[in-house]
Specification:
By secondary structure, the protein is an alpha/beta fold. The protein has helices at about 40, 45-55, 80-90, 120-130, 145, 160-165, 200-215, 230-235, 245-255, 280-285, 295-300, 315, 320-325, 370-375, 380-385, 395-400, 410-425, 440-445, 450-465, 470-485, 490-500, 505-510; strands at about 1-10, 15-25, 30-35, 65-70, 105, 110, 115, 135-140, 155, 220, 270-275, 285, 290-295, 305, 330-335, 335-340, 345-350, 390. InterPro entries: CHLI-like, Mg_chelat-rel, Mg_chelat-rel_C, Mg_chelatse_chII-like_cat_dom, P-loop_NTPase, Ribosomal_Su5_D2-typ_SF, Ribsml_uS5_D2-typ_fold_subgr.
């Protein structure tokens, strides 16, 4: 007898529907699994067989063949246990085939018949909804995660017996619903971080405001204790709140990574990821035998903060070059190619030398060669991809003693939001949203300069020996400064400020 149930595999952060076909026939009592399977899926044979026995289902000695289709797609993980068990029970007549119509199953099975939670339920349920499925049966531990998707019924199941009774209409279960209007995207910072806590550093605050307004990458250079890390940690407080669509996109990444729990079914704050400088290339970009998202994908639509930038392994940070240009990371493996989104704002902080006090020769004992060797860990191609370079100067005693609360994050965020609204309106017919995403072609359209501005940029390009990439990034930053100023045109003062944010790298990285 033949039966079919539906499940899904995860590729990147997207779900792919998998048909679980079961055939029961006469012959030697063998349990075969086919369909390009990973080791976890092949082991499902024993888990499912013992789980069926311990759940009270007595199966005749038959030849059982399970096929997971499409056969050219590698199946990994333990989420296929439940659909395999359901397909087998349907083939033996325990469940009518018509009761499986437009239903998708996901879940790992224990030997006693209990159904355990799995990773990636959110993108799987979202894919099922897009493809017209009417209901999803998931582990009760994933119920809140799956219910985030509107327009499809999501049922949480504790064990195999409950699943069979539900499918036979012997047990009435109510689908779990989460109303999007009940989700809170308000700013609730447990650490009460605010830009008013930072003494001085007005130039750095201004640069950060520009960077956030246009989603530009920023580098802060300064001595230890100047407040670079303090500033970076407060960047999320001036970023716009997440929309539901953005939250869903981020949550899919965290679901695949297994970082969602039943009490946090939807990421409601912009990510702020700050990996240690000992991080490996695979952990930063993603990868592994079964590829998983790395830190740059976990920072999607948020901030990736790399403190002590030169202390990172050079080969590790060079990986950032491609994601910074394409806003995604591609991981190729023997079994397939995986793509993860990586549209993040890169924020980096570093000391100007190994001791941290160059060019103050009263404190710095580093030789010129030592300084060059230290900052030379950051390559020029990578530096070219950073739009804004700013110096965080040492705070003096009087500023600390007479500390007055400076501008709050709330007031800065209002200006950021105004600039963002201008960009959203300007790019309403484009496939991008922020100035940092402008391409060379669209730069010519949206960053037009007058005669004086062209002359100023030509002088800067020649004297500073800028690259074409740096030239384009100056135009993008000047466009953001003009938006903050409420100006439709880029003027000399906007262009001059943007050029200043490229002069610091010449100070430290000059030949």
């Amino acid at each position: 007898m033949f039966s079919k149930a539906f499940s899904a595999a995860v590729n990147g952060i997207d779900g792919i529907i998998v048909s679980v076909e079961a055939d029961v026939s006469d012959g030697l009592p063998i349990f075969d699994l086919v369909g390009y399977l990973g080791s976890e899926v092949r082991e499902a044979r024993e888990r499912v067989r013992i789980s069926l026995k311990n759940s009270g289902f007595q199966l005749p000695a038959k030849r059982i063949t399970i096929n997971l289709s499409p056969a050219d797609l590698r199946k990994e993980g333990t989420a296929f246990d439940l659909p395999i068990a359901i397909a087998i029970l349907t083939a033996f007549g325990y469940i009518p085939q018509e009761n499986l119509d437009k239903t998708l199953f996901v879940g790992e099975m224990s030997l006693n018949g209990e159904i355990n939670k799995v990773n990636g339920v959110l993108p799987i349920v979202y894919t099922a909804y897009k493809l017209g499925f009417e209901r999803c049966v998931v582990p009760v531990g994933n119920i809140k995660e799956g219910a985030v998707v509107q327009g499809i019924d999501v049922y949480g199941i504790k064990n195999l017996q409950e699943a069979v009774r539900f499918l036979n209409n012997e047990t009435i279960l109510e689908p779990y619903f989460i109303h999007t209007e009940d989700l809170s995207f308000t700013r609730e910072d447990a650490d009460n971080l605010d830009f008013s806590d930072v003494t001085g550093q007005e130039l750095a605050k201004r640069a950060i405001e520009i960077a956030v307004s246009g989603m530009h990458n920023i580098l802060m250079v300064g001595p230890p204790g100047a407040g670079k890390t303090m500033l970076a940690k407060r960047i999320p407080t001036i970023m716009p709140e997440l929309t539901f669509e953005e939250s869903l996109e981020i949550s899919k990444i965290y679901s695949v990574s297994g970082l969602l729990n039943n009490n946090c079914s939807l990421i409601q704050k912009r990510p702020f990821r700050s990996p240690h400088h000992t991080i490996t290339a695979a952990a930063l970009a993603g990868g592994g035998r079964t590829p998983m998202p790395g830190e740059i994908s976990l920072a999607h639509l948020g901030v990736l903060f790399l403190d002590e930038f030169p202390e990172f392994n050079r080969n590790t940070i060079e990986i950032l070059r491609q994601p910074l240009e394409e806003s995604e990371v591609t991981i190729a493996r023997l079994y397939g190619t995986y793509k993860y989104p990586a549209d993040f704002m890169l924020v980096t902080a570093m000391n100007p030398c190994s001791c941290g006090y160059y060019p103050d020769r009263n404190k710095c004992n580093c030789s010129i060669n030592q300084v060059k060797r230290y900052i030379g860990k950051i390559s020029r191609p990578l530096l070219d991809r950073i739009d804004i370079c700013i110096e965080a100067l040492q705070v003096n005693y009087k500023d600390l003693e007479n500390h007055k609360l400076s501008e709050t994050s709330e007031s800065i965020r209002k200006r950021v939001m105004s600039a963002r609204e201008i960009q959203l309106e300007r790019y309403r017919d484009e496939i991008f949203y922020f100035n940092s995403q402008l391409t060379p072609k669209t730069i010519n359209q949206y960053c037009k300069l007058g005669k004086k501005e062209k002359g100023l940029l030509e002088k800067a390009f020649t004297r500073m020996n800028l690259s074409a990439r740096a030239y384009h990034r100056i135009l993008k930053v000047s466009r953001t400064i003009a938006d903050l100023d409420g100006s439709e045109d880029i003027k000399e003062k906007h262009l001059s400020e943007a050029i200043c944010y490229r002069s610091l790298d010449k100070k430290y990285w000059e030949d």
